[in-house]
Every structure is written in C-alpha cells, then in structure tokens.
Amino acid sequence: STWGPLCFFMRSAFAIFALALVAAAALVPVEERSTPLALKSGWKRTRVAVSSSQLDAPRDIIVCLHGSNRDVLERMFWERSNPTHPDYSKWLTTDEITEIVAPADAAIETVVSYLRAHGMTFKLTRNRDMIRVRATFAQLERAFGVHYENFVHRTGRKALASLGPYFLPADVAQHVARVSFLVDLPDVHEPRGRVVDATPADLQITPAVIRARYNITASGCTNANNSHGVAEFQAQYFRQSDLDQFFKQFVSDSTDTTVAHIIGPDPNPPGLEASLDIQYLLGVAPGCNSWFYSYASDAFWSDLTAWLAAMQDETEVPLVLSVSYGSQGDYPSSSY
Asked: 153 vs 7, 48, 159, CA distance in Å?
C-alpha cells in the first residue's frame, strides 16, 4: 500500500509548512528550548502518520513565567533562617510570597491573552508564576510552532511527542521561562533486579548513626505540629512491608511506620531511592506527620515542575520537604 508513505510525506510537508508559518508570524525560539532535544535511548520515530483524532486529544501543559524579586526572596529566606537575625523564623504566608515574586500583571495578561486567542483553557497557580493549561495537540502545534510525531519505545510504549524547539511571539516569549509537558519524550523505567546490600555492619549508616552524629537526643517527634515529607520521581515508590522491616532491623525504639499522606500512584515494585528516602525520614524522626509524593507521568524535569505547581496550590504542606533527585547528563537549560 502507498497510503502509509503518502501520509508520512504529507505530514513532513505539513512540518515544512508549519515552519514557514512560524517565520511568517514572527515567532522566536523560547530560550529554554531553542534547539531540538536529542532522541532518548530506546525510542525511535515510526512512519505512522499522526491522525486527526490524535491531534484533537487534550494535553495538559504548564507555562512557567519569569518571576519578580527572586533576589529579595533569597535574602529574606536566609534572614529568617539565621538565629541571630531579628526576623528569624518569621515565615511568610503563600500570599505574602506571591506579593514578592509574582510577575507583573501586564506580563501575565500578555501570556494569557495569547493562550486565550488559541482557544486554550488555563488557570494560574497561587504564586501567579505558573499557568496550568489544557489544549489539544493541534492547538499546541499552532500556538508554539511545534511538530508532533509518533514514537515507539523498545518496551512497546508509544508516544505522540515533539523534540522541539518551540516558539512564541517575541512579546510573549520574553515573559516565559519554560513550558513543561510540551516537548520531550516520557521517561521509561524498565524493571531492574532487587538490590542486595552487602555493606559490613560496622560501616552501615543507620538512623542511630545519624542521630548520634547530629546530637538528636529525642527518640521521636516532640511537637505534634511537626511534619515532614519526601517527593519521589522517575517511577520510584515504596512498599509498606519494607518500611516495617527496616524499623524492626534499625529503629529499635519505635514501631510507628505510619505514612499519613500518600499523594500519587504507589504501585509495586518499590524503588531503591524512594525506599531509602521514606525509611530514613521516619527512622530519624518517627511519629511525625509524614507525607509521600510520587510522580512518574512524563519526563523528570516536567514532573518536577508539576510537583512545584502542586505545592503552590496546596493549603497544607509538610514543614520539611526532602527532594534528592537529578539526572545524569540530561540537564535542563539555565532558564529552567
């Protein structure tokens, strides 16, 4: 059949046409992604034409705006963290932080007017420096000058995606730091074998070692208002039975392994990073109000943005949050 190659040719022709429209509309590359991303390991393009139903499907993205007064917020943070400063521990509310960091109203209006003109629905986060947007793939192609293609991973997972770059009119682009979930392929986490710890007992860093090193004399949470949490990405979860076993082996003075708030999916098998995080968080301070967040819907840097946006919109979050994630070689731009 010649229909497949013909569709592929037509789709390629459309891409060339779209690039011409970009130039005609005076769109400029957004600094965060002005060059195409490299094709991730395990993924390859297919020769399957993108269908109209695929382009009509909804896609949620997050438009991150350049905030204001980040230097002021940085200074205020360190002042409130310094026991010798008069403002020590005088923490700000979310609304007070918004007054400092929110972009100018004119900047926000410039961006949302552009989104509105392309038929997209949107909502600002509480700090007003991120915009949650729902659009179709077709709307995203027109608004951002991107070209979506069909990809397949060696595991069989399929994705409609673009590797960028993406574009906006210059007066809009100047206010945009990043657009998450617009370009890039999802991270695929293939199953790995269970890790067996062979560290000699006298070299193990246990919760008791950490308590001794930092002179933590209390055996549990000493204030009912204390709370802490961890955020996990890259398909990392934990298993309650593993947490219980960790306490039996390394936390002799407590049996309280309750994780009061689990936000996001938490399927099996557990991940090494997530298991370590929640075990040591509770092992050092058992009995505290504990939170566990998990994200694994897309590429890591986009999921991290989604978590930050979620934190802005929450009315209750833990007082201490631990995040120990990154990437190896797949780094974001400086504007991210």
From this structure: 22, 14, 8
Residues 6+ apart with CB under 8 A from 301: 180, 184, 327, 332, 336
Residue 99 — φ and ψ, nearest 5°?
Answer: -60, -25
Radius of gyration of the chain (CA): 23
Whether the CB-CB separation of 96 and 90 falls below 8 Å is answered with no
pLDDT digits (tens, 9 = 90+) for 80-112: 999 999 999 999 988 999 999 999 999 999 999
Residue whose pair of structure tokens reads 């919760």 in the numeric block: 207
CB contact at 8 A, 101 and 26:
no
For 33-74, the pLDDT digits (tens) are: 888 988 998 999 999 999 999 999 999 999 999 999 999 999
Buried b (16+ CB within 10 A) or exposed e, 49-82: bbeeeebeeebebbbbbbbbeeeeeeebeeeeee
Residue 47 identity: R
- The dihedral region occupied by 328, where left means phi > 0, alpha psi between -120 and 50, and beta the remainder, is beta
Check whether 3 has a pLDDT greater than 60.
no
- Is residue 27 predicted with pLDDT exceeding 80? yes
Backbone angles phi, psi at 146, to 5 degrees: -95, 165
From the list 57, 46, 47, the residue with the least C-alpha distance to 4 is 47
